[in-house]
Amino acid sequence: MANPTVTPMMEQYLGIKAANPGALLFYRMGDFYEMFFKDAVDAAAALDIALTKRGKHNDEDIPMCGVPVHAAEGYLLTLIRKGFRVAIAEQLENPAEAKKRGAKSVVKRDVVRLVTPGTLTEESLLEARRHNFLAAWAEVRDAGALAWVDISTGEFRVMTCPLTRLGPELARLAPREVLVSEAKEQDCADIVSDMRAALTPLSRASFDSQAAEKRLLDLYAIGSLEAFGTFSRAEMAAMGAIVDYLNITQKGKLPLLRRPVHEDGAGAVQIDAATRRNLELTQALSGGRDGSLLHAIDRSVTAGGARLLERRLSAPSRNLPEIHARHDAVRFLLEQSRFSDDLRADLKRCPDMDRALSRLALDRGGPRDMTAIRNGLEQAGRIAEALEQTDAPDLLKTAARALIGHEDLVALLDAALIAEPPLLARDGGFIAAGYDEDLDRTRQLRDEGRSVIAKMQAEYIEATGISALKIKHNNVLGYFIETTATHAEKMLAPPLSERFIHRQTTANQVRFTTVELSELETRILNAGNHALEIEKRLYTTLKNAILDQSGPIGEASRGLAEIDLATAFATLARNDNWTEPKVDDSRAFEISGGRHPVVEAALKRSGEPFIANDCDLTSGTTPAIWLLTGPNMAGKSTFLRQNALIALLAQAGSFVPAKSAHIGIVSQLFSRVGAADDLARGRSTFMVEMVETAAILNQADDRALVILDEIGRGTATYDGLSIAWAVMEHLHASNRCRALFATHYHEMTALSAKLDGVENATVTVKEWDGEVIFLHEVRKGAADRSYGVQVARLAGLPNSVVERARVVLDALEKGERENGGKKQAVIDDLPLFSVSNTPQPSPKPAGNSELEDALKSFAPDEMSPKEALNALYELRALLTD
């Protein structure tokens, strides 16, 4: 029995809401999307908008809030970022149609789309220079697979992926949303949470591999998937789950997806989540892009080029011909700098055709998306023509070939569309004059009705010979012909009476009409709506013409992105003095004058130079490990990271920040740098360090590049030293990889004499008058100490604490020498710290030092070059005495 307190409209709302659990319901009410009950409470809090009420339900006020339809995208973005999903319920008919069913009939409404983090397409909801991936992980008979799609560009890929690789692959892709089977939700929850992605469990039916195959065949309208390659059952299940989810969220209107591409995990450098985070490849540790490698080196001028750069940095290639082809393209554009600059000027005028194409396919686009396709293809043609006139390398020539062959579509769009159309097709006015005769006539009626009526009036005057004849208009009769009673007799008699139809007689005037005038009146009154209908029809025709060429347009977009990235790398190399690396299949790793691209960029802004350093891990078939010692803040971590980034950049296809670089292919990149805890899982800083170190030791092969910083520092001294010692031996004996190992355990420097391929290196400092000066130079050899007390003083610790630390350090070092290395006896004899008995810093001796006196005696303006050189030798002698 129906609840009498529930209105028909609220009954409709509750029905739609019940069919879409787990999502906020945007319920269309005229010019607003309204929310009720708990949805209203949650949305009002999340959006910081007013919460009001409308009507009652079960004798209680119904909470309500709303947002304007024209501003809905901004509110949607806020809700999606805060973890909500939103169901959009639109009006499927106008109120007039509803009233035909009865005065109290409710306008038909239903959900036309479910907005989720992985299914965004609107330009305002997306970052133009980043992908927005939706991923799905499936497991069939213990075989796992990962598929991912960006519906805003049509990118669709799949790869074999066991559960153990899911974390690293999700870290590479950074999807916004991950689909898993309900049966696997618990297995994947922590992994997906670590990636800060939304986890969406689906029924097992969505992951059924047989049903998935049928979905894919229907999507591409083909009889067999063999044309796309061979896919495992798990891979088909993952792809099929994505298609099923898109069908659910888009309510049957599937996006334009490119053919699925099978990605080979062995073709890219393996980088785990911790390493990506430590190296700050695409996101800084502080959050956001500023401070990341991507932000520091991005010189791309198109959205597609920026997205390609992120993919290349996230998955550097292990394919030598591919790497060499990319370097060839960068070298050519570096040598042809003026040509490269001209290309970049043309590329800057290229819109994002991928996303425009996707919006058109989903009926969320408009005339501006069509002009984006037109303008993009026009620019593509110019770029292809320019490249064809050069001896560009194969990569650029191949990209240029994808930019040609679009002349017919460009001509069609150029003839049909105005230069700068409105955003929405429903606004009209985007079809160019002269393209469609019917539209031109209708627009003339709409815009020039008076002149058309005047022209008809002149025709009637000529036909009747009555100069006083007028065509007038009122709200009762509409358009009519009016003349005096005297002249009316002529029009009432044959033959004019056959054409002019009497309508009304007044005291002084007689009014007529004609068939032509009635038809013209109808056309004038309906001209505005008719013009819009014609434009909508032409819009559909043009949209279909574009979608028919979606494949070639997608190829052109990829070609433009490839050219943009090559010119971006060339610009970076030219402006920042980067050099072409030699990448081969050897075990070489020889960097001369290497620099950290992010740190160097930051120092450049402050006007400070970056101190370049060499690194040589070349060692035939044996492992090659540098054991790096030196004080904190001397630059050990920077040195470690810069060498990892140089290898990554080289294999991504870029030149590198170094004087020269010879890099044998790196298969895996591992980094254990910095300190972090994971309190949510009950992991201390030391536990996180050990977990990440264990992952490296269990996975690194002999082609890996490993950088480790301060292993064992999170526990007791001897525990930490023993762990660090054992890790070093394992890297040498079992992993047999190239590695940089930074430590404060100076005892480990003894390993260089025991293990072939292990060398000591140190970051040099200069101690002067109790202060430590960081030189940031890496040299062969071992540090004599860590200078921790001096660094503490630089950090601003109170002088009393610093001096007390010096006393304790001196006592420990002396006691260790005198007691055979036993620190505890010395510790037992140390008095407790107190401010009063803490030795104060020794005052400087009165007067100047001999060096200061010598400096003051020099008069540089009065010295000859020879005298200045002799003075320099004198100062040096004073320092060495």
Automatic annotation (TrEMBL):
Belongs to the DNA mismatch repair MutS family. ATP binds at residues 630-637. Gene3D superfamilies: 1.10.1420.10, 6.10.140.430, DNA repair protein MutS, domain I, MutS, connector domain, P-loop containing nucleotide triphosphate hydrolases. This protein is involved in the repair of mismatches in DNA. It is possible that it carries out the mismatch recognition step. This protein has a weak ATPase activity. GO terms for biological process: mismatch repair. The gene is mutS. It comes from the Bacteria. One of its GO terms (cellular component) is cytosol. PROSITE patterns: DNA_MISMATCH_REPAIR_2 (PS00486). CDD domains: ABC_MutS1. One of its GO terms (molecular function) is damaged DNA binding. Signal peptide: none annotated. Residues 704-720 form the DNA mismatch repair proteins mutS family domain. Keywords: ATP-binding, DNA damage, DNA repair, DNA-binding, Nucleotide-binding. Residues 832-851 are annotated as: Disordered. This is DNA mismatch repair protein MutS.
